[in-house]
Amino acid sequence: MKIQLKKNSSAAFTLIEIMVVVIILGILAATIIPQFMGTTQDAKISAAKSQVAELESALERFYIHMDRYPTAEEGLKVLVDPPAGAEAGADSKWRGPYIKQLRNDPWGNPYQYAFPGTHHPTSFDLWSRGADGADGGEGPNADIGNW
Predict the structure, then answer these.
(1) Statement: residue 2 has pLDDT above 80
(2) What is the pLDDT, as a whole number, of residue 130?
(3) What is the mean pLDDT of residues 19-47?
(4) Which of 4, 23, 99, 138 has a CA positioned 20 to 30 A from the CA of residue 33?
(5) Are 115 and 103 in contact (CB under 8 A)?
(6) Concatenated DSSP letters for 122-135?
(7) Poorest-confidence range of 9-13, 16-20, 132-136?
(8) Would you put residue 72 in left (φ > 0), alpha (ψ -120 to 50) or beta?
């Protein structure tokens, strides 16, 4: 048995078939995309927490070598460059750099450092101001600190 195709038949999709596929894709996108909307914000918060912990560890190593925490004037920059008056060498206590590069938080703002700290009066406070770049806030705008 041989099946013969008509010579005039075309092998194309109809407009209805294309519209059905587009509608199905739209429905799928409408149900899947909202699940990933908060993922970027959660990733930035996790990255900020991780970077605060890394900077806190570097500050503790600085304390072990220098017998003091950086002053508020020196700030976090002292983790990369030696403090004024202390050359990196055999006669200096500074054994840095303690971090490769001082980066901004995931929202592009510099990390904040205070010595002595408000939350830790005998040591330091280290924090990111969150998504809004201002102290305080709730949710994604909340500060992320070492307290």
Answers:
(1) no
(2) 85
(3) 85
(4) 138
(5) no
(6) TS-EEEE-TTTTSS
(7) 9-13
(8) alpha
Task: Identify residue 37 by its one-letter amino acid code.
Answer: M
Domains of the chain, residue spans: 43-145
144 close to 137: Cβ distance less than 8 angstroms: no
SS3 assignment, position 86: coil
Residue 146 near residue 126, CB atoms below 8 Å: yes
Q: What is the largest CA-CA distance in the chain?
A: 98
SS3 114: strand
What separation, in Å, do the N-terminal and C-terminal C-alpha atoms of the chain show? Answer: 82
By CB atoms closer than 10 A (0-12, 13-18, 19+), residue 37 is: exposed
CATH number assigned to the domain covering 43-145? 3.30.700.10
